Amino acid sequence: MIEMPSLVDQYCHGVLRTELGLGTFESYLGRDTGPPAPGTTFFDTQTGFAVRRWCPPLLGLEPHCPPARYLARRRELGVVESARLLLRGTGVSTYLVDTGLPGDLTGPEEMAAAGAADAREIVRLELLAEQVADTSGTVESFLANLAEAVHAASCTAVAFASVACVRHGPALAPEPPGPGEVRGAAGRWLAARQVGGRLSDPVLLRHLLWNAVASGLPLQLRVGVGDPLLLTDFAAAATGHGTDLVLLHAYPYHRQAAHLASIHPHVYADLGPAVAHTGARAAAVLAEILELAPFGKLLFSSGGYGVPELHVVGARGFREALERVLGDWVRDGAWSRTDADRVAGMIAAGNARRVYRLDAS
Amino acid sequence: MIEMPSLVDQYCHGVLRTELGLGTFESYLGRDTGPPAPGTTFFDTQTGFAVRRWCPPLLGLEPHCPPARYLARRRELGVVESARLLLRGTGVSTYLVDTGLPGDLTGPEEMAAAGAADAREIVRLELLAEQVADTSGTVESFLANLAEAVHAASCTAVAFASVACVRHGPALAPEPPGPGEVRGAAGRWLAARQVGGRLSDPVLLRHLLWNAVASGLPLQLRVGVGDPLLLTDFAAAATGHGTDLVLLHAYPYHRQAAHLASIHPHVYADLGPAVAHTGARAAAVLAEILELAPFGKLLFSSGGYGVPELHVVGARGFREALERVLGDWVRDGAWSRTDADRVAGMIAAGNARRVYRLDAS
Amino acid sequence: MIEMPSLVDQYCHGVLRTELGLGTFESYLGRDTGPPAPGTTFFDTQTGFAVRRWCPPLLGLEPHCPPARYLARRRELGVVESARLLLRGTGVSTYLVDTGLPGDLTGPEEMAAAGAADAREIVRLELLAEQVADTSGTVESFLANLAEAVHAASCTAVAFASVACVRHGPALAPEPPGPGEVRGAAGRWLAARQVGGRLSDPVLLRHLLWNAVASGLPLQLRVGVGDPLLLTDFAAAATGHGTDLVLLHAYPYHRQAAHLASIHPHVYADLGPAVAHTGARAAAVLAEILELAPFGKLLFSSGGYGVPELHVVGARGFREALERVLGDWVRDGAWSRTDADRVAGMIAAGNARRVYRLDAS
After folding, report:
1. What is the 3-state secondary structure (H, E, C) of C44-100?
2. HSE, side-chain direction, 13 A CA sphere, residue B2
3. Tens place of pLDDT for every residue, chain B, 361 residues?
4. Which of C64, B337, B154, B245 minimizes the C-alpha distance to A333?
5. Cβ–Cβ of C36/A288 closer than 8 Å?
6. Which residue of chain A comes nearest to B333, CA vs CA?
7. Is A259 in contact with C252 (Cβ distance < 8 A)?
8. SS3 state of residue C248
9. Cα separation, A64 vs B238, whole angstroms
10. Which of A101, A361, B213, C174 has the fewest Cβ atoms within 10 Å of its own Cβ atom?
11. How far apart are CA C220 and CA A77, in angstroms?
């Protein structure tokens, strides 16, 4: 058995505060907002099977019990008690919570209380800019307020997160946009925008990214569906600012993300969905990421969102996968037991503690 | 042991009606029309080794006997009796046969008789258009005859197949071309074309695809060599027409195909060559496809073509791979035995029966 | 146990002639020229762990001993004796050495003497052109001297190597540039260049590639980071010249490289870094390459460079990986023992002996 500390979940969201119907719960097992195909259910996925493996025992049921029985038990306990039991079963001692998703979701303090853990905030750049735009009257005030908001967030948050690569594609121009370019783009966006309108202008997305790079706080980049090697030029441009980049959600391009982490000192790779969404395959996918990435550059996350079951399957699946992969290598003589325990500790918690300066703050 | 029904082979071709020489047989083990490199043979491939594993026992020989001995036995039995013995050893009870490849190949009825199975036709769109062009004198009659031919095929076939992404690349413009555009392209193609000439004009390829989408019959798309994520825009445009898209031949981008199947309700992924061509690796590749794809969205096929040995290795390799993968997960406690049997039945036959409405027709 | 001959290492470099400090040694375990990230070390990588697995026993220490202890022992023995002990522990009987990297590196003769093996030279095209440019006064003399240098090298070397795809990206125009185009590009490059300046002009890179193709010597192409399918057009254009192309360094696109090797008779795939850099994962990665590539088209290499430890981990890791993969397939009944031994011999040495005509010269 590999020894492993309690986990730092370096990227997740809050959970819904309200009771869920069966269809709503199922939709959180799917990977998009649409319904399942006729004749199918999102329970018939690796995520669905992993939920039925890990979660029923935490609520007093046998593993793999039918979905209807599980949901009945969940309703019986209520949303608050279910969340408490589930989050306390994750083995996570620190949650880093991206608060930038819509919905009636728990914030970091509630996650901490429910899970008997610490929790810290990750600020999503695009939402921050949209909120600033909602309350700024002119281009000048928008840009000044935005700079101030980024600075203020950098004093309280542990990281910034960005979906620029999802909204625009990963092939963003790598260099920072010039001041005139930014003013022009801001003017056009603000003029066309209604309150709550989303930011997808590439110049403003890049402006945000470079504001975050300048803050010195680690910057988490959702890669979106596409080869993260398209981020090579941005990663190169962001070298030497003292800011770490953490690539989120690279699967099925996780080997490419590991490659980037291996050639850039300031680039890190998240294990999140690659492991959390693949259920019985988590160990196999984790092993692929461990091929090229330096072991000091990998960070566990659950990516959990909306229902605490996703935090559970992310964390329990990861722990089992890591034990299996490293345990096999020790048994084969490829790794020493001492090294395996040490690397397990790094990926489970130590790397995140160092990158996000969790012990210093 | 996982329980599994007899298989629906959702995509294959007929087998040659005539006796084959050694060189001809070997060419069907290769992946292109060229010869093997000097000093090498296509028998030294996973496909070649899989043929020697599964087929000799069906003809009364020991597994892995030398190629020359196997081919001698095949000649001794004759092409008809060999096909009968081999196809009856596949465990397939329904063949869906793409009749759009050249050569003296058996049609669905002959496949059914030889294999003691059912067989249904898949109509290849490009060949249909080429046949219509051979007998149409004007642009107007070509387009009218084509519409009629697509409609007629949709009444008898179980699916359309298209090689548009192979002939033009997967980055086809996603929307249907306008009528004027289609007439112009048809005029140019018909004027330049000789009898039997192939269709590769992108406007006409898209016209065909959208005719098929409008028919309501499932549309099988050969992805060609390239990332199926390039089909994202076409898949999105084809949403809501009630027509299912089945991605064929995505390996080595099978994880990307599984991703598309996971985010679009109407997109399905074929297991075909990914499993049929990889021999001893079939279980490993199958397991990768099972990471992200909802289990209701995966369809077995052999892709067999020309020699019945390819139908055998596709079917036997798939069955062994699925038993191994799901059996391991049950032994590890990751899946329940009940779920494993149920998912095996879905992938082996149930999903295909539902998508192609095989029980209704 | 699979039987395997001594290895032909079809692509490696020499080792440093001078003693190394701890930091310098560590830098050879990284994948780029930069330092490790703060708080991390390149010893914490699969390469680092593989070095600590395979090398200490060759120097009289226990496997997995701490880095400091290993480096102390290495200093105690001295650089020459360490190299001798390590290279004699590789199980390699022939090294093909790319002499085109900078640094005080041993040449083929010294590699042969240290390793008690044969060694032959691989000539790197771009360095050859740069050396010719250093001593040529005019465009005419440069082009004439270059043609002569390529011809001379083709009489003594066993292969050419090119980094054109790394310097320019793999999407080079596939056809040979015309004479006027080449003269123009040469004029501009020579005029702008200082002594020692690197060649990255795409026209001259293509000119070099086609000179190599015309020589008939196998041409090794470093794929660089990117999908080798971008080389499809060049591979097609180079068909029929009697010259073999060997794709180097395709990981994480090794399945795509195997695909190219499966459809072009003259294309081969290197196993090098895919296996040498992935340590405990070498067997898993090797198995992926064995999915599609004909077994006569795969070539072992270590890619070793600078420190002989990399030649050791490449060779020992490959041997163990191949024994494990093929051994498993034999135990499963997927392959016969005879076939497994035969394929092991092909990949370990036989294919390289045939492609590089090692027995003829």
Report:
1. CCHHHHHHHHHCHHHHCCCCCCCHHHHHHHHHHHCHHHHHHHHHCCCCEEEEEEECC
2. 29
3. 899 999 999 999 999 999 887 788 999 999 776 889 999 999 999 999 999 999 999 999 999 999 999 999 999 999 999 999 999 999 999 999 999 998 999 999 999 999 999 999 999 999 999 999 999 989 999 999 999 999 999 999 999 999 998 888 777 889 999 999 999 999 999 999 998 899 999 999 999 999 999 999 999 999 877 788 888 889 999 998 999 999 998 999 999 999 999 999 999 999 998 999 999 999 999 999 999 999 999 999 999 999 999 999 999 999 999 999 999 999 999 999 999 999 999 999 999 999 999 997 5
4. C64
5. no
6. A53
7. yes
8. strand
9. 36
10. A361
11. 65
Cβ proximity of A162 and A209 under 8 Å: yes
> Which amino acid is it at B127?
L
Residue B156, H or E segment: helix B139-156
Count CB-CB contacts under 10 A for residue C196.
10
How far is it, in rounded angstroms, from Cα C354 to Cα A211?
A: 57
CB-neighbour burial class of residue C147 (10 A; exposed 0-12, middle 13-18, buried 19+)? middle
Structure tokens at A338: 């001492």
B-interface mutation test, from C231, C290, C291, C351, most B Cβ less than 10 A away: C291
Q: Which residues are CB-contacts of C37 (< 8 A; sequence separation ≥ 6)?
A: A265, A266, A294, A296, A297
Cis, bond preceding B252 (omega within 30 deg of 0): yes
> How is residue B39 written in tokens?
């000093």
Q: Which residue of C has its CA nearest to A353?
A: C39
Gyration radius from chain A CA atoms: 21
Query: Cα separation of A344 and C106, whole Å?
Result: 39
B chain contacts of residue C336, beta-carbon cutoff 8 Å: 52, 63-64
Of A282, A233, A234, A223, nearest to A258 (Cα)? Answer: A223
Contacts of C165 (CB under 8 A, 6+ apart): C172, C221, C222, C223, C224, C226, C231
Mutate to test the interface with B, among A32, A51, A53, A230 (most CBs of B within 10 A): A53
How far is it, in rounded angstroms, from Cα B49 to Cα C232? 27
Q: Are C303 and C273 in contact (CB under 8 A)?
A: yes
Q: Cβ(B131)–Cβ(B195) under 8 Å?
A: no
Kindly state the tokens that stand for B3: 């329980």
Both tokens assigned to C188? 């501009």
Closest residue by Cα to residue A344 from A326, A320, A317, A324: A326
**B275 vs B321: CA distance, rounded Å:** 8
* Tokens coding B232: 């994202």
- Distance CA(C10)–CA(C212), nearest Å, equals 18
Q: What is the 3-state secondary structure (H, E, C) of chain A?
A: CCCCCCEEEEEECCEECCCCCHHHHHHCCCCCCCCCCCCCCCCCCHHHHHHHHHCHHHHCCCCCCCHHHHHHHHHHHCHHHHHHHHHCCCCEEEEEEECCCCCCECCHHHHHHHHCCEEEEEEEHHHHHHHHHHCCCCHHHHHHHHHHHHHHHHHHCCEEEECHHHHHCCCCCCCCCCHHHHHHHHHHHHHHCCCCCCCCCHHHHHHHHHHHHHHCCCEEEECCCCCHHHHHHHHHHCCCCCCCEEEECCCCCHHHHHHHHHHCCCEEEECHHHHHCCHHHHHHHHHHHCCCCCHHHEECCCCCCECHHHHHHHHHHHHHHHHHHHHHHHHHCCCCHHHHHHHHHHHHHHHHHHHCCCCCC
DSSP B21-54: -HHHHHHTTSSSSSPPPTT--TTSSHHHHHHHHH
CA angle A86, A89, A95 (to 5 degrees): 85
Kindly list the partner chains of chain C, i.e. chains with 3 or more CB atom pairs below 8 Å.
Answer: A, B
Task: State the ipTM, two decimals.
Answer: 0.96
Structure tokens that stand for B103 in this block: 């050569």
